[in-house]
Amino acid sequence: MGGGPAGMLLSHLLWRAEIDNVVVEQRSRDYVEARIRAGVIEQGTSDLLRSLGLGTRMDREGFVHGGVTISNARSPFRVDFMALVNRAVMVYGQTEIQKDLYDAGVGAGRPIVFEAENVQLHGLTEGNPSISYVRHGETASIDADYLAGCDGFHGVSRHAVPHDVRQEFERLYPFGWMGVLSETPPVSHELIYARHPRGFALCSMRNPMLSRYYIQCTADTDAASWTDDQFWDELRRRIPEEAATSLVTGPSIEKSVTPLRSYVAEPMQWGNLFLAGDAAHIVPPTGAKGLNLAFSDVYYLTEALAERYSTGSTTALDGYGATALRRVWKAVRFSWWMTAMLHTFDDAGEFEHRMQETELDYLAGSEAAQTAMAENYTGLPF
Ligand SMILES: Cc1cc2nc3c(=O)[nH]c(=O)nc-3n(C[C@H](O)[C@H](O)[C@H](O)COP(=O)(O)OP(=O)(O)OC[C@H]3O[C@@H](n4cnc5c(N)ncnc54)[C@H](O)[C@@H]3O)c2cc1C
To answer: Partner of 87 for a Cys bridge, out of 43, 244, 246, 340, CB 3.0 to 4.6 A?
Structure first.
């Protein structure tokens, strides 16, 4: 269930392991491809895409970033990933990865059902799992050995795990990010993460003529109530002076507000259903981890299914949730740490301010602290 990045990569990995599968997606291909989301890919994720033959366009059009700039009250310092851990990240939009995955799947004639409504899961604990859905008014169903819930945070799969079994761990942050996409050159060749008393800001990018900027806002902010000029003025106030001076602005081609949350649902397996990606966990975008976690989940799941079909053993499959969650929680911790360090919290007192200042001062001056950040930002192994 779900033809987002998790579902499509899982499908691709399964076909390579010669395991038949069908992807059932509730939206149209155009709709999924147009969703503006992630942009930062861990080294392990780009290596995985490359090893699957899905990295050609990424290597041509993406950008390798060997570090990031962190700014505290407009005073910047750089964390040099390459020097510290000899690893880098790739800036390549989720929209592009999604297109590459669909091109590969559709091009190979693999079954992908788009616009499936009223998707329902059956027989999860009775050993005869299946799904049913309605497409263009016609009801259809698919029998399977296993179901993979890759249908994102608002999907149906997670809710198939009974309430008395499902444990939820959640932190809702009292703010959101207003993001603007503009056809302008990025202000910096690497990302700038900025803490400022007026709130967090992030300068990111998609390509040499497409920039993505974010500012912290209240969770209930209506993006349409902000003019582009208001957005640019606020961004300039929060980022280092040099960046503010050289910032090239233009009309926004997309403007939206994203709420920030940390969320994990356990277990990630129920009967013959396995959850992967945003269906099981959400991280605030500060650490750029969501898409990468979706990919490591489906990597583990494929390994486990391949073992099951090649040897008949379900040991790895039974351990899938525990294996995936060990990496998930580390990414949750890292994203929470980045978020806590860089955002303005309305209820924070002077003690919390000093802690943030000290955290950033320590990070700016300690190679050990920067190494820990570099190791996590470029991605823990999977
Ligand atoms: C503004 C923003 C910025 C982000 N930045 C980053 C970043 O820089 N780096 C990063 O790693 N992550 C980032 N993320 C997170 C990343 O986008 C997600 O973690 C990623 O999309 C998860 O992929 P997924 O396939 O698990 O879920 P989704 O992308 O949500 O895909 C789920 C799919 O399931 C479909 N679906 C839903 N319900 C059903 C149903 N009932 N039946 C069938 N199909 C269904 C949906 O239409 C969708 O296509 C960001 C997210 C946002 C919102």
So the answer is: 43
Please give the Cα distance from 88 to 210 (Å, whole number).
21
Mean pLDDT for the stretch of residues 26-35: 95
> Over the stretch 264-317, which tens digit does the pLDDT of each residue have?
999 999 999 999 999 999 999 999 999 999 999 999 999 999 999 999 999 999
Please tell me if the CB atom of residue 26 comes closer than 6 angstroms to any atom of ligand 1.
Answer: yes
Token pair belonging to 28: 């149209």
Q: What is the pLDDT of residues 206-218, one digit of tens each?
A: 889 999 999 999 9
CB atoms within 10 A of CB 78: 15
Residue 234 makes CB contacts below 8 A (sequence gap 6+) with 198, 201, 215
Rounded distance, CA 259 to CA 220, Å? 8
- Which of 146, 128, 186, 149 lies closest to 6, judged by CA? 149
- Average pLDDT value for residue range 359-364: 98
Helix (H) or strand (E) run with residue 185 in it: none
Residues sharing a CB contact under 8 Å with residue 320, sequence separation 6 or more, in sequence order: 268, 269, 274, 300, 301, 304
Amino acid in position 254: E
Per-residue exposure over 160-173, b if at least 16 CB sit within 10 Å of its own CB, e if not? bbeeeeeeeeeeeb
The DSSP line for 51-67 is HTT--HHHHHH-EEE-E
- Distance between CA 309 and CA 294 in Å, rounded? 23
Tell how far CA 70 is from the center of its chain: 20
CA gap 362, 48 in Å, rounded: 34
Ligand 1 atom nearest to CA at 27: 47
- The CA 278 to ligand 1 mean position distance, Å, reads 6
Tell me the residue type at 40.
V
pLDDT band at 109 (very low <50, low <70, confident <90, very high): very high
Phi, psi of 274 (to 5 degrees): -125, 130
Nearest to 36 by CA among 302, 230, 222, 253: 253
pLDDT of 37 higher than 90: no
Residue 99 pLDDT > 90: yes
Residue whose CA lies nearest to ligand 1 atom number 9: 288
> Is residue 179 in contact with ligand 1, taking CB distance under 6 Å?
yes
Q: Which residues are catalytic?
A: 65, 193, 285, 289, 377
